[in-house]
From TrEMBL:
Organism: Acetobacter indonesiensis
Modified residues (N6-(pyridoxal phosphate)lysine): K40
Keywords: Pyridoxal phosphate
Described purpose of this protein according to its UniProt entry: Pyridoxal 5'-phosphate (PLP)-binding protein, which is involved in PLP homeostasis.
Protein name in the entry: Pyridoxal phosphate homeostasis protein
Length: 228
């Protein structure tokens, strides 16, 4: 232990402290908020630094990148957990089901079919969140608001308790709080316990609105490398 603690460990500690503070500020137990460290575009060596600093849950948005990075890391850290958080093509469903502990981006019937099919053939099904396009932005992933209730009910019937909750990414240019409130009320209506909302710019606000998972990348790993 001669080396000084690397900046990544300091940034991670800072994020954890802000999570605790945001939870305490609204009378919530910080233990009810899980930090997903979003490591997309960052090398496995950075993930390892976060592991060394005690982080165990990571988020990646591309199946291929996750497949390249995580199996080797799991060899040495078996309690690692991987969340896939990006838009998912149906032809990647099988790899996603094989790799992930949670898929946060279920957003359409064709993907539900592909995941169910993959689960059947692989004999495993990750936990699932439905991504809701709370801003109804045409270019964004997520089930449109007006289709969300039906889609949630259908997936509930199909996947049972494996459907854990909802995820959203508010429009970049808007106050995120109304989007967090909408997602919370939808999850509440459907009796779903997990609310994945809040990124580097807005996770304290998301925690104030009931987030149980926050997905934080830049605040932990620094700016993403341009390529990859
Ligand atoms: C990249 C990403 C994040 C993390 O974003 P930061 O602003 O770097 O914290 C969170 N959620 C999703 C779905 C992402 O793709």
């Amino acid at each position: 232990m001669t080396a000084p603690s690397p900046p990544l460990a300091d940034r991670l500690a800072d994020v954890r402290a802000r999570i605790d503070a945001a939870a305490h500020a609204v009378g919530r137990d910080p233990a009810a908020v899980t930090l997903v460290a979003v490591s997309k575009f960052h090398p496995a060596s950075s993930v390892q630094q976060a592991i060394d600093a005690g982080q165990r849950i990571f988020g990646e948005n591309r199946v291929q990148e996750a497949a390249a990075k995580f199996p080797a890391l799991r060899e040495t850290t078996p309690d690692l957990r991987l969340h896939l958080i990006g838009g998912l093509q149906t032809n990647k469903a099988k790899d996603a089901v094989r790799l992930a502990d949670m898929i946060e981006s279920l957003d359409r019937p064709a993907l539900a079919d592909a995941l169910a099919h993959a689960a059947e053939s692989l004999g495993r099904l990750p936990d699932l969140l439905i991504e809701v396009n709370t801003g109804d932005e045409p270019q964004k992933f997520g089930v449109p608001r007006e289709q969300a209730d039906d889609f949630i009910r259908t997936c509930r019937n199909r996947f049972g308790d494996k459907l854990r909750g909802l995820m959203c990414i508010p429009p970049a240019t808007e106050d995120p709080t109304p989007h967090f409130q909408l997602l919370r009320s939808m999850a509440h209506e459907h009796g779903l316990p997990v609310l994945s909302m809040g990124m580097s710019a807005d996770y304290p606000q998301a925690i104030a609105q009931g987030a149980t998972l926050v997905r934080v990348g830049t605040a932990i790993f620094g700016p993403r490398p341009a390529s990859a």
